[in-house]
Each structure stands twice: as structure tokens, then as C-alpha cells.
Amino acid sequence: MEMKKYKFWFCTGSQDLYGDECLAKVAEHSQKIVEALNNSKKLPFEVVWKPTLITNELIRKTFNEANTDDTCAGVITWMHTFSPAKSWILGLQEYRKPLLHFHTQFNEEIPYDTIDMDFMNENQSAHGDREYGHIVSRMRMERKVVVGHWSDPVVVEKIANWMRTAVGVCESSHIRVMRIADNMRNVAVTEGDKVEAQIKFGWEVDAYPVNEITEAVKAVSVSDTNALVDEYYSKYNILLEGRDPEEFKRHVAVQAQIELGFERFLKEKNYHAIVTHFGDLGQLQQLPGLAIQRLMEKGYGFGAEGDWKVAAMVRLMKVMTANMKDAKGTSMMEDYTYNLIKGKEGILQSHMLEVCPSMADGEISIKCNPLSMGDREDPARLVFTSKEGSGIATSLIDLGNRFRLIINDVDCKKVEKPMPKLPVATNFWCPRPDFYTGAEAWILAGGAHHTAFTYDLTAEQMEDFAAMMGIEAVRIDKNTNINDFKKELMLGEVFYR
Ligand code: MN
Fold it and tell me: I need a surface site. Which of 33, 217, 280, 429 has the fewest CB within 10 A?
């Protein structure tokens, strides 16, 4: 996935009370910290050192430059010494990007044998960061606070995680979703206020007649289609299951043509996510299955049955996890059916077709099977099972007066036995803290059956995203108990009124 080379600015606060010698040390220390952070190789984006901020004018100028520099995805602030916080008010007021308060200190240990008053005055972030933190809180500004020594890998990882959230915030503002079908008739949870979504998240959600994109599909040449079919046949296992090989290949070619046509249409019109509906296919020969699976793998967001909220969320998560080393996968998912055997409880996750192969564990096969819904020919689809491990399932819902993001920590497992008759890709997970509490809390919160799922982000990152967007987030995790969770929902009802 092509991503902009975002950078984060490192701004150190101080004042001129301590003399030039001290300020030289402040600059030297902050440069060393920036160098160490970049050399850690743990940060997904570069940190850029900025000259020490000591006056209102410079603080204001720096924050405004950060606003207008479109490669800057956020500012990291740290008060090496005391920096009177009134001098930060104007700059902070005008600042519009993600903010991290890095509460660190240059030295790790108190230098017991040599410490004197000069040392204390020079190294007082314990003091200066409290003054600065106060003004950010007083101004009710959303920011992340990361505490600890800059050489600690745990601390560096927290900064890395926040960076991905910050880039999500920056990229969210121009996510464009193409809908080629409206919401499935009578379905409630996939609906929502698109104008409010654009105000809150920046998402632009546009509708196109399905036959307009079908024209783009028809325009794909036979040779381009056949070349992609060849790629499919070299990459995936072909499961004929008694079908005629030539007939099978013709069905696969329909999906190849859809993939190419859709992608060209999306690129030409600059969209990052797409929404389809099995009941509204116009002149398309098949429900886009394999085609959508491949587009999701390339980083496009997807939502089924008109679900533009999930499409935008999948795109957002693809952006937040882009170029991540050892990423395990991100997809739209749907809670389908349960295993309720004691000790083996879990939710079988799937969809009619559209499950992203980035989650696949092992072999991926192509199958052609009838669709039990709709009136089109049997669509080709990729079939696989998914990786084990922890992940997060998220659902963004519209409560009428506000959005709520529901985030559930889940543990993905292998099902006990193969499911040879199931012609779709699957994942299988158990929600935390346990199946019963997790599902009860999800339903009480109003969570949907469609989710945006990833192995590669934490609940905290999505909570931070929600906080920066100014929306409610509720988390269902190892600490959830139903009594407290109900009170949290009641609190949200009042707070977000
Ligand atoms: Mn669905």
C-alpha cells in the first residue's frame, strides 16, 4: 500500500531563565533523544527535531507550521525544564493535529554522588511537564501522555502505537467511500448519518449507479482478464469439486474482470473503499467475491449490504497498519454462527464471500459455489482459515445523536475440525473476557454483526482514535463485568448528550 512519508515533530519546551549554557544542554539532550528514537528502528515514522521552544511567538509559529506541513502527522512535546505554560496557550489553541506529551527525562537514574542544584534545575521534566500538562487539561485538549525513559523499549513501542493512530487521524480526513448500492432494505445497524460522519471523521461517502461501474468492468480486455486469471491459478489452489474445469475457469474470469474494472474505477475517481450489496448487482454477472477479497488485501476498505461505516473503518485500519512488519491481517468480518459447547465457546466469523486473505493461515483455494441469496451465477471466491492469536473487533454505530465505537478484544483460534462443505473463508474467535460476558456486553452496547477486525492494532489505539475524533468508545476486554459496563453506557448517555 502506498503511504505518504509522514513525520512527527519533536518539540522541547524550556525558558530563558536558566542561561545559555543550560539551554545548550537542553538542545543537546533533545537531539540525542530524537536520534535514539529514530535509531531504535521501532518507530514506523521519522521523528524530526525542532529548536527548543522558549517564547509564545516561537511556540505559536511552530504549531502553525505543523498545521500547514502536510507531511507532519503530529507533534511530540516534552518539557526538559520548567516552561511557563501560559506561553503555550496561543500555540495550542491554534494547533489542529494529534498531540503527544512525552513525559520523559534525559537521565535515567538520579546521579547520587554528583547531584546539585544546577543539575536539578536543568533536569526537571517532573516539574515542567506537570505545568504543561495542566494547561493542556485546562484547555480540554485531547492528547496522549506517554511516561517513561526514552531508551525503554516499552516506552518506544507506546510512541510507535500512537504514531499509527495519529496517521489514522490524518488519513481519516480524506477517506472516500464509493457505494454502488444502498443500504440493505430494512436493516438498521448498517445505516447512519453520512453528513455527521464527514463532520466527525472526514469521510466522504458517495453513491454511484451499479451499472456505471459495470461499464468499467465490461471495458476490461480479455487479455488483461486472462492474465489475471493466470495469476490466480499460479497463486491459489483450485478446488473444482466436480465442476468442469473450463466452466470453472469462466466463472473465475468473471471475478478477474470485476477486480480489474473495480480497481480502475476506484483509482480513476480516487476512492479508497467500496460498498456492494448482493441484492443490487445491476448487470454484474456475479456478486463480487474473489474480486473484493483481493481489493481488500490491496488496502481498500469494504462493506457489504451497503455498510459504508464498516467500509471506512476497514480502510482506516488498513491505513493504520500499512507497511507493518509481520502484520497478520485486517478484514471486514461478520458474526455468523456460534459454538456453544462448554469450554469451546466461540463465534464463527465469515461472510457470504468477502473475507480478506491478509488473515489467511496456510493454503488459499478458489471455489465456485451457488450463492444461497440473490439471483446471479455461482461466484468464485477465495477460501481459507485464519491465523490464531489476539485481535480486536470493532463496530461503529450511529445512536441517533452520536457515534459510538465498540471495541472488543478477541482471541482467534482454530476450529476443532475442518468444515469441508463450507464454501467461504472463516475466522473463529472467542470474545474477552469470556464468550458469555463478551457477547452480552456487545449486545448491550448495540454492536453490529458486521465488524472491522484486525490482528495488528490494540484496543487502546482505537480508543485513542475515538478520543481524537471526539466520539464515544467502549471497550470490552479482560476486565469487563456487566454491572460496570452498564454504568459506563449510562455515563456515555449523559456525557455525549
Ligand atoms: Mn453481511
Answer: 280
- Residue 101 CA to ligand 1 center (angstroms) comes to 41
- Whether the pLDDT of residue 327 is over 90: the answer is yes
Q: How far is it, in rounded angstroms, from Cα 105 to Cα 126?
A: 8
227 Cβ contact partners less than 8 Å away, ≥ 6 residues apart: none
pLDDT digits (tens, 9 = 90+) for 357-403: 999 999 999 999 998 777 788 999 999 999 999 999 999 999 999 99
Last residue of a domain, one of 172, 189, 207: 172
Tell me the pTM.
0.97
- In this predicted structure, the answer to whether residue 17 has a pLDDT above a threshold of 90 is no
Look up residue 53 and give its DSSP letter.
B
Q: Are 136 and 182 part of one and the same domain?
A: no
Give distance in angstroms: CA of 351 to centre of ligand 1: 6
Residue 2 lies in a domain: no
Number of domains in the chain: 2
Q: Are both 164 and 239 inside the same structural domain? A: no
CA of 16 to the centre of ligand 1 (A): 61
Mean pLDDT, range 92-100, rounded to an integer:
98
Residue 433 CA to ligand 1 center (angstroms) comes to 25
C-alpha cell at 160: 510507535
Residue 235, domain extent: 176-496
Alpha carbon of 468 to ligand 1 centroid (Å): 29
Please give the mean pLDDT across all residues of the chain. Answer: 96
Closest CA to 232 of 254, 262, 263: 254
Cα four-point dihedral sign 79, 83, 87, 89 = positive
CATH number for the domain harbouring residue 93? 3.40.50.10940
What sections of 139-204 are H helices per DSSP? 153-172, 194-201
Please check whether residue 330 lies inside any domain of the structure. Answer: yes
Residue 1 maps to a domain = no
Amino acid code (one letter) for 285: Q
Domain boundary among 146, 172, 198: 172
What's the gap in Å between 304 CA and the centre of ligand 1? 6
Alpha-carbon torsion, ordered 373, 378, 381, 386, to 10 deg: 50
**Whole-number pLDDT of residue 18:** 85
Tell me what pLDDT residue 376 has: 83
Distance 334 CA to ligand 1 centre (A): 6
What is the Å distance from ligand 1's center to 352 Cα? Answer: 7
Based on the fold, state whether residues 137 and 250 are members of the same structural domain: no
